[in-house]
Queue: 2 jobs
Job 1
Amino acid sequence: MELPAELLTRAHYWMRLTRALDERGAFLHKQSKIVGGYFSQIGHEAISVAAGLALGPDDVAAPMHRDLGTYLVRGLHPRRILAQFLGRATGVSRGRDANLHGMGDLSLGLIGFISHLPASTGVIAGVAHAFKLKGEPRVAMAFFGDGGASQGLAHEALNWASVFQLPMVVICENNQYAYSTPLARQMRIEHIADRAAGYGIPGVIVDGNDFCAVYQAVTQAVERARAGGGPTLIECKTMRMRGHAIHDNMAYVPKDLLETWAQRDPIARIEAVLRERGLLDDAALAALLERIDHELDEAQAYAEASPYPDPSEVTQGVYAD
Amino acid sequence: MELPAELLTRAHYWMRLTRALDERGAFLHKQSKIVGGYFSQIGHEAISVAAGLALGPDDVAAPMHRDLGTYLVRGLHPRRILAQFLGRATGVSRGRDANLHGMGDLSLGLIGFISHLPASTGVIAGVAHAFKLKGEPRVAMAFFGDGGASQGLAHEALNWASVFQLPMVVICENNQYAYSTPLARQMRIEHIADRAAGYGIPGVIVDGNDFCAVYQAVTQAVERARAGGGPTLIECKTMRMRGHAIHDNMAYVPKDLLETWAQRDPIARIEAVLRERGLLDDAALAALLERIDHELDEAQAYAEASPYPDPSEVTQGVYAD
Amino acid sequence: MTWDANLHTGVTTLAETGDAPPGAIRELTYLEAIREALRYELQRDPAVLLLGEDIGVYGGAFKVTQGLIEEFGEQRVIDTPMTELAMIYAAIGMSFQGFRPVVEMQFADFISTGFDAIVQFAATNHYRWGQAAPITIRAPGAGGLRAGPFHSQSNEAWFVHTPGLKVVAPATPADAWGLLISAIRDPNPVIYYETKYLYRSLKGPVAGGETGLVPLGRAALRREGEELSIITYGAMVHEALAVAADLERAGHSIEVLDLRTLKPLDEAAILATAHKTGKVLIVHEANRTCGVGAEVAALIAEQAFDALDGPITRVAGPDTPVPYSPPLEDAHRPDAVKIRAAAQRLLEF
Amino acid sequence: MTWDANLHTGVTTLAETGDAPPGAIRELTYLEAIREALRYELQRDPAVLLLGEDIGVYGGAFKVTQGLIEEFGEQRVIDTPMTELAMIYAAIGMSFQGFRPVVEMQFADFISTGFDAIVQFAATNHYRWGQAAPITIRAPGAGGLRAGPFHSQSNEAWFVHTPGLKVVAPATPADAWGLLISAIRDPNPVIYYETKYLYRSLKGPVAGGETGLVPLGRAALRREGEELSIITYGAMVHEALAVAADLERAGHSIEVLDLRTLKPLDEAAILATAHKTGKVLIVHEANRTCGVGAEVAALIAEQAFDALDGPITRVAGPDTPVPYSPPLEDAHRPDAVKIRAAAQRLLEF
Ligand SMILES: Cc1ncc(C[n+]2csc(CCOP(=O)(O)OP(=O)(O)O)c2C)c(N)n1
Ligand SMILES: Cc1ncc(C[n+]2csc(CCOP(=O)(O)OP(=O)(O)O)c2C)c(N)n1
Ligand SMILES: [Mg+2]
Ligand SMILES: [Mg+2]
């Protein structure tokens, strides 16, 4: 099935924005404007953008540290994201949380993530459960990685979603590594999706660097969930193209593996599709990149001009009242 | 394959002893000599005895609350078990732990269990790991139930055992209920053994009320593990024939389900095999039951004559020195 | 009730269930007070849900929730798989969508299995991204029932130490009722420690309706006195009151403060009683080291230092698991005898 | 090193690795002291194993274990799946078969994911059935590194409260070495809190060989003084020493006690310093309520009451998650300025 031109063009914008924002963050880190850690998501753009686009406005997602695209697609402005990276009062977490942690805003259907992977899978099971109890045609989406797959919570949450037949879509981002740990040391199976059978739910395997494939698989799962068909586990095969975090030089990753996956770059692939369908040429791409650059310049300026949080407020907001 | 007569006869003794000891415990509870909770294992004799007999003397098992037979087969004397039930200083845990909890004795290859199910699966992965690291041809065995199967630890430990290809056998006692929760509310699959595929290990389904079937399946898995072939998950289908614990009247269990399973009583079945093979008749059975009764009378007398722990020792032994 | 029954999902109204009229006082056991508080909130607020292992069809391991699935249906009284971590995470997710889930731990001892969901996630969302997580976790705790190391724990200090949580521990049927309702309505995650020992052994008056509410964060002066303050909570309140009555016969005047809420502590009430009597005895079943009693002592030592006429004394569970055998458990658990001895020493100081 | 390398499994002997001769003193960073202690024990005792996420080929998130897999092989330095709960359970199982596993949590923050294995299982086996569980859990904790709420936690109080565990928190390279070796050799489960902040920022002399051992349960008097005692541990020891030096210039004499072991506490040393100066200031990064400081204060208030000349004062992390943004984290974390202000108030009391 061919995806509509408008969708592809939109997706392309988001994927390019995601990458550019990611690179901007890395640059700010190099400049020591971002202190602490920084996670690059390069290589994950097709997954995070497709997953985000497959959801409706009332759906809820709990993205993790390589799902920058999902945050953007759901409407989190780069201004707030860069201000978050810089620890400013205008950042999503008002300076309380670091890098992509705690970037939640339920008005955008986004849940702020904690480090303890795969927490998103647990909380999303509850969100999906709420939708089901209220009889609302809404879908909840969780993300976890090949590392997160080893955690007990991944198992518990998938089983929970299955027992209660919840409108939940779980995106497993199998990027071959969990920090330095390769897949073969994380588990002794090839496909994480094979675990779906152990919960009596569909397990789908998809090329995570092919926007169209991810979009179609996720859309199908979202429709299924919305129609009362229960949860789906979608394994997206991809590769983490940078280190675990910015300090990590990835010496443990074989060079040829990276080269192989570099050939499959998700942005190059969607651009090839767009060009083939006459939806993109060099001039249009250059214009798009410039537009994005401007957007990010403006966002960065906003973030850098933003104040730090007031230290006298450090104890505020621990409790809701 | 026909099992040797000697083995069957031995197994029959252990199964009868297990049931008689269990009933003795229930009776002592009724007499208020056992305070607190009491767990009956009736229906589980084939599993616990077969699993115990399939192990060698240097192997290690971590049985749980319905595996009385395994404790017995591995050499834990009914004296120490009854003294444990009665909270005496001569009990396995010296009065510190309750009913079947904490009945550990590594000199018998037994690990004392904690309530937090399925802890045994986790610790046994470590024991198996130790065997592998030391290059010893020993096997470690864990037990968990259909309820325990939902816990994250079951997943983590199976994955661990698979990644490190450990000499581990995991017995899943699927007795249809976890406390009041029927299987269909615990998971949306029929066979827990199907989850083995998600770890790349063999999953075996066996009739848990058929001693011979369990013994053969476990023996095969033990041999496989000892030979370096890695872990196996064996699902034994059975039925919990009493309430969760002694206070539970099981109103939630359909009567016909219990009746169906009563027809499959594991002791009746091994006795049918023995009779068929000419290894048992009424007189022999009566003699056996009497012998067991005597053994348990003696054990009970020992337990009841045993002192309570000295309260002044309450803080002793928290730490090893 | 059995699993075959056709569970209805309707919500019954107050009138139908024959409740006491608002404000009327009923005699309820501690357990009944909890159940009635759950019923009251289930009736009042469609956002309230119960989640837990065996809480529906079976009515709960202690039958606290008995009858509620029949009354409110399985959409609101939800039997779950045996999976504490996912359960608490799921409750938080539900709370993000407007529900007020009340999660039952079968025993407080199993709360450690869902620990991450509580201390890392529930406790931090509001501080980090302004999202409230109004869940209540009911934790049947404490000992005295010969239930051994895994069915007798008093592990409240783990959560009292963790910012972002509230912790309560009612000692009477009235507080069991009033604090549970307040916990459910509070926009924060609250751990509600109920004392199994009191379930059926303690009966008392409970004011129905809104009059019986007990605010979080407020201690209760159970008995006024002049010479010494016993500060405690849970089942130990009753031991302390027995000691106070006993010592009164010996001519002493003892004050008993029931903390009721362990986080946030009622600092004003604690400091007031310390100032008043100058002698403080803190009692709890939980292990001594770094228990709630340590915080109460530290608070007084810092902020009521001038008022003290004697060492701040603690009577607590010794630092061991709770043993099973009756003589051992009795040696372990604080009781009137142990409390009286400590009070006597402090009075004579 | 890469995953393709052929990891050898041989054990190198002391002589081969160019270690300092026994007793010789080396200048090591805090991090190097930890690594060298691990190497020393790996060399000395074939039962010692390391387990953790990314500790082998990668050398650990902080490179604490760098080089050890090359030296000791993947049978002894074991890269694990990302699964803290199974990891700690497995370590306990290994310890039952004679091993002495040292488990690295990637950050102390993730210790909650393996909580059950520690507090329910590791902590209770010996009391219940006499089985020792000699495991060591290394927990890189505390803040000051702009790492936010999930990479800055000081959660030691959870374990100090739990019977059956030991907890240590070295503040110097010498103690990092000496306490780690003692922890590994101890027959009980020990949580070893190492302070990330000090990894590379602190260098100091470390006595090699057996002479450098530091026994568990013994505090260290870092500075003698007469007027006021600061009792602390971890990175705060250095802040306290800076304050003491500063106040000396203002004519005050301050004692600094480094607890080093948090469970069991060195009660004698704590009471001795309280008796000596009569004024106690307790400092830690961990959240204030029910922290280790509460226990120290309670202990003193109970057992050194007569000696006190001023309120026992605590300077601790406020009861919030550790925030990320530099001005917020600085406001949160105790430092010399905050400690000095509290000390000044107490001196003037
Ligand atoms: C429970 C837990 N343990 C350890 C960590 C530390 N950690 C952060 S990310 C990571 C690797 C995660 O790998 P994966 O799930 O595959 O996601 P990826 O980073 O590859 O996208 C680890 C070990 C964590 N965040 N949570
Ligand atoms: C982590 C945990 N949660 C709750 C319990 C309380 N509990 C004790 S046994 C049990 C049911 C266990 O069912 P299953 O694993 O099927 O074993 P069975 O009793 O049927 O043999 C429950 C819920 C527990 N022991 N551990
Ligand atoms: Mg990964
Ligand atoms: Mg069962």
Job 2
Amino acid sequence: MKVKLLYFAALRERFGTAEETLELPGEQSRVAALIDVLRGRGGPWTEFFATDYPYRVAVNQQLAGLVSPLSDGDEVAIFPPVTGG
Amino acid sequence: MKVKLLYFAALRERFGTAEETLELPGEQSRVAALIDVLRGRGGPWTEFFATDYPYRVAVNQQLAGLVSPLSDGDEVAIFPPVTGG
Amino acid sequence: MKIIVQEQEFDVGDEISGLAAGDPGVGGIASFVGLVRAENEGGTVAGMTLEHYPAMTRKALEDIVAQAAARWVLRDAVVIHRVGALKPGERIVLVAVASVHRGDAFAACEFIMDYLKTRAPFWKKEQTPAGERWVEARASDEEAARRWR
Amino acid sequence: MKIIVQEQEFDVGDEISGLAAGDPGVGGIASFVGLVRAENEGGTVAGMTLEHYPAMTRKALEDIVAQAAARWVLRDAVVIHRVGALKPGERIVLVAVASVHRGDAFAACEFIMDYLKTRAPFWKKEQTPAGERWVEARASDEEAARRWR
């Protein structure tokens, strides 16, 4: 299965990319599994996901948690705590 | 001693007057003594001050209570609970 | 700090824009606009007349704003209250408070409204199909004001 | 109900006047305007850039307003949030809520602001004399949002 990954704000700058497509094993997955894949990538991903930085995740434009399910074609966004208003 | 009495809103209409000057015995007094004088007057005053209507009193433009002191020349206003805003 | 009692309409946008203009520390402005409702307690209201106690009104409002300023960080505030004849939909009152953070702005603005409702000498007389009637004070307004003690 | 994300300035007076216009049951409008401060955490701010997540922003704001409407009596509401480049003193956000009584208007307005601050996908980057920096989320905003649970 494939998901579309988006990064915003400081994370977009840190990873040097705003968007990518990621292949995950199986037909269903979870946010936690996606994060594990990213942590295993090396470079800024491994560095970042080894910290306790309180990043936020949205799946299909809804705030989500590590146990949230993922399906093929989902849009997953990873970003810093929001600071609007 | 003399005080200037003001009535507002429903009380102005009920007593049929907006303003009067009242003579009180002694050189100092209290709001409670003034109310007793009004209650003893007969007519709409006796009728009104026999009820438990939660009227408000201000002495020299400050909200006051029954024990608040009165001096010669004070301005005393008696009015219904306020309904602005 | 601006406290005004007047018969004329006021412009909400102008008042909020003028509040704390040029103050670099202001992060937010909380405000409340009170309107004449066309319905009250189930009846139709054709209009109302607002009476006040001119010698006391300004003092009372100044005292309420001073109490708010002692409790929260206020950078500026405006209170405008109209008197005289008002039609449904017209604005009665504006309270706007500028502060560094929104929590203080919201709390001070609501405090000023709650105290104004229970301590500032204004009285409303409504015109209804059944004749004129003085609006009665609401127990919920007293409760709202008591929360801040 | 009006929810807008835009680069341009907005007019607070127009928005508040337009809210619930002609609705005879509206007794009050509570609002909040957030401004770009010229000082933040002790430093001078020359300006800021607001980034957002376009596909999500509107949904998130609609969801927040819907939650407020489920908890309080709302007759109308407007949320306008700017994105892009902003200078000190400029308005970032307007939340205005019309209700029958002021208690509901104040509560809903503050709730929407607290949730917007912690759940709507906006990020601020400040320009300071020491360079650009992403604004960090404040723990006090999380606490403010938690109060409503």
